[in-house]
């Protein structure tokens, strides 16, 4: 009974002659469809966390109806010992919840959107990165902009590497690895954000532990601000017939990438 109910809602109840199994059988596709619909609408927005209680409720119903069928079978005289079959569902539950926390809210914050953009930039996936803009540029236009930005960063990182030496951690062969992204305060509305793109280096700092034992640490030091990324939260497409259509959720998109900008070099 437990195994049947874990596969399809209501099969265990129907095997016991419980007509409530038909209701559970009809409820399963409706519940799956509702959670899938909520996920499609909200998972990529600032309200992505709403999907979590919906997901946990679905899991609770799934396991709950299976356990209820098992208990009914025991009450009718079935032999015990099948409870361990619940362990089959645990890896699936863990996988689903892990995937939610890994991929939920991809654009629910400026940092998440920026992280996806940077990954696409470093990999040269211009077509994928287009969707992250408020006004998506052409793929060829974005690729040309990336090439110009790569050339600029390579030049500045190469100059800094010559100035500070190998201990700086700056590698002209991998210039993008020398960039740091820091969200800075913006004078605009809460729906806007600004992220500074900085070239940074490592610096050895010698100290004394308890004033007696010489030690050394590595600090990250700003070389110069190379550019600025401006982001804005834009309303997502929201069906008018759903509640909340007057105040739809938002997703963070890139408004502009200003790189290079005039930057003041920090002297050693």
Describe the structure.
- This protein is α+β, with helices and mostly antiparallel strands.
- The protein contains eight helices and four strands, in the order ααααααααββββ.
- A four-stranded antiparallel β-sheet has the order 1-2-3-4.
- Helix 3 runs antiparallel to helix 4 (51-75) and helix 4 (51-75) runs antiparallel to helix 5.
- The protein is elongated.
- 22% of the residues are buried.
- Mean pLDDT is 83; it is low at 263-268.
Short description:
The chain has 8 helices and 4 strands; from the N terminus they run ααααααααββββ. It is α+β, with helices and mostly antiparallel strands and 268 residues long.
Into which percent range does the helicity of residues fall?
40-55%
What characteristic shape results from the CA principal axes? elongated
How would you spell out the order of helices and strands? HHHHHHHHEEEE
Average pLDDT score = 83
Record the strand order, biggest sheet.
1-2-3-4
Q: In DSSP terms, counting alpha (H) and pi (I) runs of 4 or more, how many helices?
A: 8
Distance between the termini: 73 Å
What is the tally of beta strands? 4
Radius of gyration: 27 Å
Approximate strand percentage: 15-25%
Helix- and strand-based class?
alpha+beta
Unreliable stretches covering 5 or more consecutive residues: 263-268
Largest sheet: 4 strands, antiparallel
């Amino acid at each position: 009974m437990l195994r049947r109910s874990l596969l399809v809602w209501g099969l265990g109840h129907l095997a016991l002659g419980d007509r409530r199994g038909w209701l559970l059988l009809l409820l399963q596709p409706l519940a799956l469809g509702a959670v899938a619909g909520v996920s499609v609408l909200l998972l990529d927005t600032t309200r992505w966390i709403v999907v979590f209680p919906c997901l946990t409720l679905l899991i609770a119903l799934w396991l709950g109806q299976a356990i209820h069928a098992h208990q009914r079978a025991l009450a009718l005289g079935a032999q015990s010992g099948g409870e361990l079959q619940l362990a089959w569902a645990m890896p699936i539950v863990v996988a689903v919840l892990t995937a939610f926390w890994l991929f939920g809210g991809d654009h629910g914050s400026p940092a998440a959107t920026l992280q996806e953009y940077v990954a696409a930039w470093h990999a040269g996936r211009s077509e994928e990165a287009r969707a992250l803009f408020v006004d998506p540029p052409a793929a060829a236009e974005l690729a040309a902009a990336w090439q110009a930005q790569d050339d600029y960063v390579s030049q500045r990182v190469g100059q800094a590497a010559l100035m500070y030496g190998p201990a700086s951690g700056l590698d002209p062969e991998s210039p993008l690895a020398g960039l740091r992204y820091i969200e800075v305060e913006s004078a605009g509305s809460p729906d806007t954000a600004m992220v500074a793109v900085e070239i940074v280096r490592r610096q050895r700092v010698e100290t004394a532990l308890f004033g007696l034992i010489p030690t050394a640490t590595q600090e990250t030091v700003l070389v110069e601000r190379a550019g600025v990324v401006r982001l804005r939260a834009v309303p997502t497409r929201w069906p008018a017939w759903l509640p909340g259509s007057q105040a739809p959720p938002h997703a963070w998109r890139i408004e502009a990438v200003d790189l290079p900008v005039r930057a003041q070099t920090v002297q050693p």
